[in-house]
Amino acid sequence: MSTFKHRTLAAALTATTALTLISFPAFAQDASAEDDVTEVVVTGSRAQPRSRLDTLAPVDVIRKDALDAQGSTELAQTLSRAAPSLTFPRPSAVDGTDSVRPASLRGLSPDQTLVLVNGKRRHSSAQVNTNGSTGRGSSAVDLNAIPTAGLSNVEILRDGASAQYGSDAIAGVVNLRLREARSGGSLSASYGQYNTEVEAARSSRKENDGSTYNVAGWIGLPLGSDGFLTVSGEYRNRESTNRADVDPRVTPNRVTGRYGDPEQESLALFANAGKPLQNGWELYGFASFQDLESESAAFFRTATNANNHQGLYPNGFLPLISVKSKDYSATAGTRGQWGDWTSDYSLTWGRNELDYNTLNSVNGSLTSGSKTSFYDGTVTYDQLVFNADISREFAISLYSPLTVAIGVEARHENYQIEAGELQSYQAGPLLGQTDINPGAQGFIGFRPSNAVDVNRDNVGLYTEISADITPRLSFAAAARAENYSDFGDNLSGKLSLRYELTDNLALRGSVSSGFRAPSLQQQYFTSTASVVSGGVVVETGTFPASSAVAKALGAPELEAEESTNFATGFVYRKGPFELTLDAYRINIDNRIVLTENISGTTEISNLLRPYGVSAARFFTNGVDSETTGIDLVANYRLPTDTYGRFNFNLAWNTGNTEITRLPGASTTSNLQNPPVLFARIRQYILTNSTPENKGSATVDWTGGKWAVNGRATYYGDVIDAAAASASDIHTGEKTLVDLSASYKLTAKTSVTVGADNVFDVYPDKTLASLQGSQGALAFTRFSPFGFNGRYVYARLTHNW
């Protein structure tokens, strides 16, 4: 850690420690301030809910008003600003990942965080992130498929929780809690756009783009005399942004690329319902739907490009990648009492379907008759989950009842790849000439040999006990056994303790083991292209570890990732001041990574020749890592009779990931000179694609008809690594400021204006010598806050 980082963290700790020594003035507490302290948390324990400061593990509770105080219309973006341990980069020029972007908790892989909706497992996206971006090799949950209007709050458990929730909860859990209302409602409409000065290495210009129209709302309806139905929805229409530099290949030099956010149009709907029955039982259910169309860009092809048909594109062409996503989910359940046992039974289904198309393109290997738009194929993931959870309190000789919870979760998963149309991947008669490639330029279609339709089943059994041993000492213990039909068994455990030293200060800690099963996407995703070797058309690309190609290179069958989590920290509160500090260490063995493209040597060529390929990459275990860090959160509420109410928040995360073991040479292949499976660039994506330090300072003020929110967010340096460190690209250490102000026009109608990134901060520009021949990559795609500049917006909201 650099001296600067040491000083920054020390300053944050010193400031918050000093606040604990202040004798706080006795201002009148209002009801909303009390709600801040007493709001209950349901994530991380199946015992009676605790207030957020009484939990045995750190949980961030992000209220809906905190989400509404921001200009972004994307849930993942707003969460990343409110929770310092969560990051949400905005990569570009990485195919489908542009449209389904992954979030990362504590710098770990996006698929190492479990996402729940009302405590039920959410399905992941069908998108596999195979290119050079944060989350390479993962398939994460698409948080942006959920409209924020339908949420009451979000709970982020920053602790390993596989023993409680099963696979994927290595970094923690994000639980999206839905709004429950049988009356009332809200409707908002907003408009915003980027107003920025783009200062790239070769050029500078002013841009006003990314215009975003957003309409969102919810309504509460009665369901009979005592039930509720809450319906929410959101429509978003966003134009693309472009931060590409000028292209030195064209005369005169001009911007030919499109490098930034994709153009998007989406509609998301969510319904949540509950209906009491007789004898204390209740029926409940919720369902969602999202229809998203997204269009990003590949790299510009000049008029003289070997793959160009100049009759179609006399001035060159920019291929566009269209992703159409349809996302569905539905949960139905019942809960109530069986004697002394509290019971909850549910069935949850979720499905994500992605259709890929390449537009404004050409199949350069065809002599004539090439299409300009291509259907590239479809990938689909769906899951069906059954949960049965029961718990009971036993009155034994403790200071509180002993809560015992047991349960079962059974899950069925399916993953499919459907081939695209013939021309999207076809190798035409011109293939074999210099630099001519098959299929659609920009995004080649899935071939019939890529098509898969696979399934697996999983059953998990868990038990959890918790109690207050003394008035000051609490504990919880959990164990979970899992069986997967495709890779075997796993056993996880967790122990948590909390001890109140005084009425104001409590210590807490936990130790747990965890795991993440290889996803079906990682086990079976395959995408190939065609190249010419010795005049013969062969395939190259990504292959499952179980395929003949990967096995020939010595790939073993994928195993589960295993983790050990250690956490310790304290909670301090005195009047309106709260401070939590938690340190953690997460050791992960057998991390699943995507290897380098393996090719080049005569030995490898001879080995691959029987399988008809010239190069291959695959998912494999073999990387061990250690992540250490500190989370600090401080809050101070200052309600006054004269000057309104102030809320101050300071949050800081320091996290560092190091690789402790790399994949070694295969012991099952006959290669005399085994290739490097995981080189420097891939290593840095795993360890350094999120900032080591991230912090924020927030001030909220409400008084009369006005409300003002200000936030400063600091991002540490992120490295976009090259094969040699001299060519690394850095984002630099940056601080962004967001401001917004709201005014109540009437008791039920308000208007908000604001700006995110007020001072128009960008990551460090990419030197011209490192941009490549395209000139498009003006800023690194690893920037934790993107590279769009200042965003200004206005929003009108009406409540009833």
Question: What profile does the largest beta sheet have?
Answer: 22 strands, antiparallel, barrel
Fourth-level CATH superfamily? TonB-dependent receptor, beta-barrel domain
Query: Structural class per helix/strand content?
Result: mainly beta
The 3D shape can be described as globular
- Average pLDDT, to the nearest integer? 88
Total number of distinct structural domains: 1
State the helix count: 10
Here the CATH topology equals: Maltoporin, Chain A
Second-tier CATH architecture:
Beta Barrel
Strand content: over 45%
At the first level of CATH, the class is Mainly Beta
Quaternary status? single chain
SS elements, strand count: 35
Explained architecture:
The protein has 800 residues and is mainly beta. The protein has a single domain, classed as Maltoporin, Chain A (Beta Barrel). It is built from ten helices and 35 strands. It has a 22-stranded antiparallel barrel. A five-stranded mixed sheet has the order 3-8-9-6-7. Strand 15 (320-338) and strand 16 form a beta hairpin. The radius of gyration is 27 Å and the shape is globular. The model is unreliable at 1-37 and 530-538 (pLDDT under 50).
Give a quick summary of the entry.
The chain is mainly β and 800 residues long.
How is the topology of this model organized?
Elements: H1 3-20, H2 31-38, E1 40-41, E2 50-51, E3 59-63, H3 64-68, H4 75-82, E4 86-87, E5 104-105, E6 113-117, E7 120-121, E8 151-157, H5 162-165, E9 172-178, E10 185-199, E11 204-223, E12 227-238, E13 263-276, E14 282-297, E15 320-338, E16 341-359, E17 374-394, E18 402-419, H6 422-425, E19 452-468, E20 473-484, E21 488-500, E22 505-516, H7 520-524, E23 527-533, E24 536-543, H8 548-552, E25 561-574, E26 577-594, H9 602-608, E27 613-639, E28 645-661, H10 680-688, E29 693-703, E30 706-715, E31 719-720, E32 729-730, E33 734-744, E34 749-756, E35 791-799
Parallel strand pairs: 6-9, 24-27
Antiparallel strand pairs: 1-2, 3-8, 4-5, 6-7, 8-9, 10-11, 10-35, 11-12, 12-13, 13-14, 14-15, 15-16, 16-17, 17-18, 18-19, 19-20, 20-21, 21-22, 22-25, 23-24, 25-26, 26-27, 27-28, 28-29, 29-30, 30-33, 31-32, 33-34, 34-35
